[in-house]
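Sanity check

After download, print the first record. It should look like this:
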Amino acid sequence: MTDAAQPKPTSGSFVTVLIAFLANLVVAIAKSVAALLTGSASMTAEAAHSWADTGNEIFLIIAERRGARGPDERHPYGYGRDVYVWSLFAAVGLFTVGAVVSIMHGITELSSDEPSEDSLIAYIVIAVSFVLEATSFLRSIQQLRGSAAEADQEVLQHVLATSDPTVRAVFFEDAAALVGLVLAAAGILLHQVTGSAVWDAIGSIAIGVLLAFVAVLLIQLNRRFLIGQSPSPRVMTAVLRLLADQDDVASVSYLHVEYVGPSRVFLVAAVDLVGDAPEHEIAARLASLGRAVEADEHVVEAILTLSRPGDERLVIAADPVATSTRLPR
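Expected structure tokens:
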């Protein structure tokens, strides 16, 4: 196992989360002030949304740092799965603080007959917030675009499949924030035009429903990795290619791969070695082969054994990723 297999807290994901945290903190303060001055239900919902996002980024920062810890006696494959646990906390926080508060506040404001006041302040805060959230969103897009290109996938397809939950959380939270700002602006505008506060309350409820949808989606995606989801066919193909390209490997008859953290896998494989080496050399060759496979930055540990006589060899699928031994993230 190499040091390269352990991501550092200064990785691209950490920077993406840090930018999102700073943007959300500024936005949350601005929205809270605007909500107090205007009394807008939509702006109050957006303030709750941004405070929830700010708290979530703290969870994601903890996830990045804890997940980067190397192996020890109790955790021989490191703490990579800790990232999924803390990302799950962030998703639950988004649901309970952001979604529930927004929906409940919107429902209580449905019967309000207060006139729209100081709408200009709300519009200014929404505009500034949109710029800040868009900056964070573009940062997550930039990171995802690079890893999506490696996996030969579209960005949205990749964000749903990636094993990196922190950048996925930032992507969906920022996307929801941008849509939420549009909903808030629409609610305030309709309140101003019609004189009915119902529109503002509906905007708050719509924001809550949006956050609930995103939170449930993130919870489900993190749950898949926590319960041991099998890697995608692309990842399996890339690992099989990595093994098959080793000079000492004639064929592979069995392959088990599981995630032990973002972009990190543990694998067990049965291989047929080139030639007909005597028994006392087999163990040394398998150990040497395992170290060669572990040289890949994504492989935490490789356990290799011999194929049994008559075992059918695994065939590498005709897939674009099969042209490279680089594992998709």
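If your output differs, re-run the checksum step. Summary of this record's structure: Residues 233-323 form a domain with the Alpha-Beta Plaits fold (CATH 3.30.70.1350).
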